[in-house]
Amino acid sequence: MTEWREDVLGEGFEFLRLDLGEDAEGPMEATLVRSLPRPRNFWERALKAPLPLSDVDVLYVHGWSDYFFQRNLAEFWTARGASFYALDLRKYGRSLREGQTSGYVEDLSDYDLEIALALDEMGHGLGVRLGGESKDRRLVLFGHSTGGLTLSLWADRHRGIADAVILNSPWLELQLSSAVRKALAPVVNFRATLNPRELALPQLDLGFYKRAQRMVADPREQADINSLWRPEVSLPVLVGWFRAVLDGHARVAAGLQIGAPVCVLLSARSQFGVTWRDEMLRSDTVLDVDLIARAALKLSDSVTIERIDGALHDVFLSEPLARKDAYIRLSRWVSGWSAAYASA
Question: Which 3 state secondary structure label does DSSP give 327?
Fold first, then answer.
């Protein structure tokens, strides 16, 4: 029996456990979080126009070393009438269990299981459209960083399910270049065959990204963060997981056909280094945004790229002006998409 319970985010948020069976580390589960729009009273329904996204469901997937905690993002959607859902993938955040290797999978398509279960709970089970049935509600997929890569690949494999895809700094290409990725791939594949849980790379994260967020993001959201679920520096990169990501990058480079309009939000610039610089408060310190912008054009026939001056890797956790700009651009794109959908 489905049992939604109050989430750690408190009032307005509930969670549901999704059973994924077992692997070598024991029982696995994913966690679906939801935030629903406030019911309108009689007079609001009678005197005000319907909310523009009242027929929309959003499924959000987080990135590497992350989980869902962004109240403001949920409120953006529910204020417009949409139902917002977020998925903490297996071995991340709310779904992480003692003895598990955080975030570890050897194929990004492994996540198809929890995505399918989440969509079933949301009323968007794969059988709905694949079986030719009409559907009353639209589905928006929303992914950040590695979650953006995962959802892009999923949408390509399951065409016709999503009505729109929105990506927040998706990790679509290796930071160095496609040439480096191609050179690394055979070595990574060989090492993963021998020992997939071997450390692939030394720890390269010096904590600058999280430091920048603490300094400029909405302090109310920062206060909610569980440091056990979202560590100061990123998780160790194991070779089996790294192979899965490189394979995903290669698939994007070869070209996907999501079959739905895509919006990609990115910082205007990247900033890397081994010492702290104030420029890191207004830049993506994780990905090469120029490489990501080019790779994004391989996702679909309809791709909009929004470059946001002053944004961090998570554009919605940036300093106030950049964060406001990100929400304005998101609102503009969603409004245009929704209007076009209604007139089609």
Answer: helix
Q: Would the CA dihedral through 321, 209, 291, 304 be positive or negative? A: negative
pLDDT above 60 (res 128):
no
Q: How far is CA 176 from CA 82, 180, 289, 290, in A?
A: 38, 6, 11, 11
Domain count, the chain: 1
Q: What is the mean pLDDT of residues 48-60?
A: 91
User: Of 72, 66, 64, 53, whose CA–CA distance to 13 is shortest?
Assistant: 72
Q: How far is CA 208 from the centre of its chain?
A: 21
Return the sign of the alpha-carbon dihedral for residues 256, 257, 260, 262: positive
- Whose tokens are 């979202």? That residue is 230
Residue ranges making up the domain that contains 294? 5-343
CATH number of the domain residue 293 falls in: 3.40.50.1820
Question: 161-165, 187-191, 202-206: which range is least confident on average?
Answer: 202-206
pTM: 0.94
Give yes or no for residue 159 having a pLDDT over 90.
yes
The number of residues making up the chain comes to 344
